[in-house]
Design a protein that fits this description.
The structure holds two protein chains of two kinds. Chain A is mainly alpha-helical. Helix content of chain A is about 75%, strand content about 0%. In chain B, helix 4 crosses helix 10. The longest helix of chain B is centred in the last third of the chain and has 30 residues. Chain B is elongated and about 75 Å long. Chain B starts with 13 loop residues before the first helix and ends with a helix. The chains are: A mainly alpha, B mainly alpha.
Chain lengths: ~325, ~290
């Protein structure tokens, strides 16, 4: 097990380094002009040169790279060209918001879709199965930002059972001090019940929207995996040997978990980027909104920082997943 | 949103086999999924070609008072600038669909070819290609797309290139997997015994037999492309206003939605939603039919 973990961590690290290097050079190879974006296109050559020098863009790409790497080694991600504050600090407050949002959405999606997937696998061709097939086909690829808006219209404007999509807290509520950066956790730690309920009140709609979108593929995969295991010989053998149904069910579920977990991991990594649009719609200042700002402002250090963080988190998720898989299915290790 | 495709598991469940046989026995026009998909895809392609020509109004010029609810004059109403929503919704495929189809076809061709080579000639290069596409696929597509498009300039050509770049790994992976099973078949050995060169065997014999997964994937990829284009435009990193484009229309009308002006975002949203489902349904139906034949 130890060697397996080591190997996986090693590969993950190499991937992270690879992405970091590629992103650094790719964004400099593309024909964008961040200096002109900052000082305006009609600025005098002197002003332009001065801005270029202050951003460090007058140096060769190679020396920019060595500066960046020597910063990285010291845990310094640089300073944003637009806000002037440390990228690490900005990411430190943006990431938890996104993590909280997608973790909740994920938990909700798994909680609903795995049982539904199992139920459909038990009765293929049944009414539920057909409905779910339609839903899976439908929700597998949908404009989540539009659904978010639609839900806002319906639940906020029409029914009034959701808050206005203006961020994590209502304007009058004093947010708790930033400890973990997750609104629910921070307000709980500080015992601020008013902030906690308000945070939950502002979270339920975006969480539901994301869960609505990711549930489709999870149900589909659960059903596929379950029905494959149900049709396999070892289950038939268990049944033939007269093993009680609930015990058979247990081994069926265990055997059908790996593909579902793999997909879950992929979806989680995907959601890190996919939450971008939902965060925009609900005005959450998470990693998604941060990355949009970074990209549209041509803020290179911020882009590099975002990419690095997303890479690390998603590689971390894949790693945990691979380890889980190795525990469930010992054959994976070999 | 785009969801990674899992390889289909077919015919391993007895009841699934039964269902498949039933599907095979039916004529194609009784296959609801196939017909629905084909109709939607047909309409989308038709509008991509003629949408602007048959639109009642010019989609980029104000034609009436702002924010008029749907009426007999303005079927889908007008937006805050007085543009006709219906004309814009049916003109948008010119951008959305054309872009997604081009990107899907380009990445399909490129990915199939690279996948063929990576599967047929296994070696250092093949391993490198696979690692690169692993890393590319592991990274959130949306953010990569945003970076690529925003930094290379927001125009249609760059959007197509970015989408092509992002979707090629899917086709590489699919084709390579198929090639790996095909190259062990007897016909490959027979072709080799007959004195054919490796390259000729790969292109003339293995390629045609390894095309199916890519062809099935093609239609879904078009759907993903439409979704990604709309999403990029929604955050301001895609198509430029005032071009008629679905994501852009939804973005522009989002502030009004909260005030009760629903028509400006409802109709373009339905258009995206339906089109994507149509392309996915077509893929799905073809996949089921191929799996049974």
């Amino acid at each position: 097990m130890g060697r397996y973990v080591l190997k996986r961590v090693g590969i993950g690290l190499l991937q992270a380094i690879g992405i970091t290097v590629v992103v650094f050079f790719v964004i400099r190879a593309l024909p964008a002009d961040p200096v002109a974006r900052l000082v305006g296109f009609n600025s005098s050559p002197e002003v332009y040169a001065q801005a270029q020098a202050s951003l460090g863009l007058d140096a060769s790409v190679w020396s920019q790279f060595t500066t960046y790497v020597s910063g990285l080694v010291r845990g310094d991600l640089g300073v944003s060209w637009v806000t002037g504050s440390s990228i690490l600090g900005e990411l430190r407050s943006a990431l938890p918001i996104t993590l909280q949002l997608i973790t909740l959405a994920f938990a909700l999606a798994l909680l609903v879709s795995v049982p539904v997937g199992i139920a459909t696998a038990k009765r293929p061709g049944g009414k539920l199965d057909k409905t779910v097939f339609g839903y899976g086909l439908f929700a597998g690829a949908q404009p989540e930002f539009w659904w978010g808006l639609l839900f806002i219209f319906f639940f906020y404007y029409t029914l009034g059972i959701a808050p206005a999509p203006l961020g994590q807290y209502a304007p009058g509520v004093t947010p708790p001090p930033e400890i973990t950066g997750m609104s629910l956790v921070d307000s709980l730690i500080t015992g601020n019940i008013a902030a906690f309920t308000d945070a939950a009140w502002h979270l339920w709609l975006p969480v539901m929207t994301l869960a609505f979108i990711v549930s489709g593929p999870i149900i589909k995969m659960t059903r596929q995996s379950m029905s494959r295991v149900l049709g396999s010989e070892f289950i038939l053998y268990q049944q033939a040997s007269g093993i009680p149904a609930n015990k058979v069910a247990r081994s069926t579920i265990r055997a059908s978990l790996p593909p579902v977990l793999t997909l879950a991991g992929i979806l989680f990594g995907f959601l890190l980027g996919g939450a971008v649009l939902i965060e925009q719609v609900f005005a959450f200042n998470g990693l998604g909104s941060y990355s949009v700002r970074a990209v549209l402002n041509l803020d290179y250090p911020a882009i590099q920082g975002t990419v690095l963080i997303i890479t690390i988190v998603s590689l971390g998720v894949y790693l945990v997943l691979d380890l889980l898989l190795a525990v469930i299915d010992p054959r994976v290790k070999n | 949103m785009t969801i990674p495709q899992s390889p289909p598991v077919k015919g391993e469940h007895p009841l699934e086999n039964l269902a498949d046989k039933k599907i095979k026995a039916r004529r194609w026009y009784h296959d609801k999924l196939l017909v629905t998909g084909a109709i939607i895809v047909g309409i989308a392609l038709f509008l991509a070609a003629f949408g602007e020509a048959i639109a009642p109004y010019d989609p980029t010029v104000p034609v009436g008072p702002p924010s008029v609810p749907p009426s007999t004059t303005y079927w889908f109403g007008t937006d805050t600038s007085g543009l006709d929503v219906f004309s814009r919704v049916i003109s948008a495929p010119r951008i959305d669909v054309t872009l997604a189809v081009s990107a899907a076809v380009l990445s399909g061709i490129l990915g199939t070819f690279i996948g063929l080579m990576a599967g047929f000639y296994r070696g250092v290069f093949s391993g490198f290609i696979m690692r690169v596409s692993d890393v590319l696929q592991a990274f959130p597509v949306f953010i990569l797309a945003m970076v690529l498009v925003a930094l290379s300039g927001r125009n249609l050509t760059n959007l197509i290139f970015a989408l092509t770049f992002l979707y090629t790994p899917i086709f590489i992976r699919l084709t390579r997997a198929e090639v790996l099973t095909q190259r062990e078949r007897a016909y490959v050995e027979a072709a080799r015994a007959a004195g054919n060169s490796d390259l000729k065997i790969a292109i003339k014999h293995v390629l045609p037999n390894s095309l199916t997964p890519s062809l099935i994937q093609l239609s879904v990829t078009v759907g993903f492309g439409i979704l990604l284009t709309a999403g990029l435009s929604f955050v301001g990193a895609g198509v430029r206003p005032p071009n008629p484009e679905w994501g852009l229309m939804i973005a522009n009308s989002a502030p009004q939605l909260v005030l009760g002006e629903w028509w400006t975002s409802l109709f373009p949203g339905i258009a995206v939603s339906l089109t994507v489902v149509g392309f996915a349904a077509l893929s799905n139906a073809i996949e089921r039919r191929v799996a049974t034949s």
